[in-house]
From TrEMBL:
GO biological process: vesicle-mediated transport
The protein's name in its UniProt record: SCFD2 protein
Organism encoding this protein: Formicarius rufipectus
Lineage of the species this protein comes from: Eukaryota, Metazoa, Chordata, Craniata, Vertebrata
Domain of life: Eukaryota
InterPro entries, per the entry: Sec1-like (IPR001619)
Amino acid sequence: SAELCLLPARAALLPPLAGPGGTGPAEVGLGALPAELRAAVRALVGDLDALFTAMDMREESFAVGAFSRIVAAELASYAPARNRRRTATTKASVVFVDRTLDLAGAVGHHGDNLAEKILSVLPKLPGHKIDVMVNMVELTALQTTDEICSIIAPGCLAQPNDPAAKTLWESFMNLKQKEAVMEARRHLVEAASRENLPIKMSMGEVTPEQLSSYLKLFRNNLKALENHCGLLQLVLATVQTLKHPQTSKWDNFLAFERLLLQTISKSEMPSVLKQLLPMINERTKDDYTCEDFLVLLVYMYSVVGEIESGKELDAAEEEVKKALVKAICDEPEPSPLLQKIT
């Protein structure tokens, strides 16, 4: 969008963790890091410099955390970056933050945003790290139950040539989910009216079924499909996200996290862990996965910070560990992540 550019995550680049009694990266420079990590930092600096060159940008760097200071220092002393800063015409501030200082930010389910949900639940577009695949079968006369029908090319979110779609995407990012879904309906109704399609505008809450019924009006009208293809892809992405089982799970996560923020204090940790136990022990195949529990645990411990261990906490943690081990062992087909962990 005009205000936001999403870049692929550097998943492999994490600050080294301090071992028990060992030093963290606070006192070290780039030279003290393992060779692989040094190479990754240099690659990141090179990529950032290429990006800033393309944007004709002169950056002022700020760092939060020891590892970020290393990256910022490396960028500051990188020869091509020094030359660029002499000639660049636009200015920007760049803030580097150690991911280990903000794990809650990476695993939390933030608020009520449709764009974030679409990007999180729909499958990735092949060859892309950010954009997603939108199943287009609903706009064809093809009747299939195949979830990923491979004979119809998937749609996506990037619609630079469709002004209505660009405007709608902005509202997906900037409005609350309920308002964004109403915007999707409004754009769809306007497009249908322009094409003289027999649309009946209804008031009240927008449901995915209602949006689907509007989309079907475009189905056999090739001219209307061509004129509004970008918009239709975004509305289909909305319908598929709202119907996705992951979306209701997202809302459960969000409720749990909000409750946690209200109740959590260092003394409450054992009772919060006990609340998690039945969720692990009594889950069915449609409930949370083992990865979901790991994400919740990362969130809980990040929010609560350092905790003094005591008998009650140790006992609660032991029970959760046992339940998690059993859950992982009971997985009929462990995911690649679980295989990596075990």
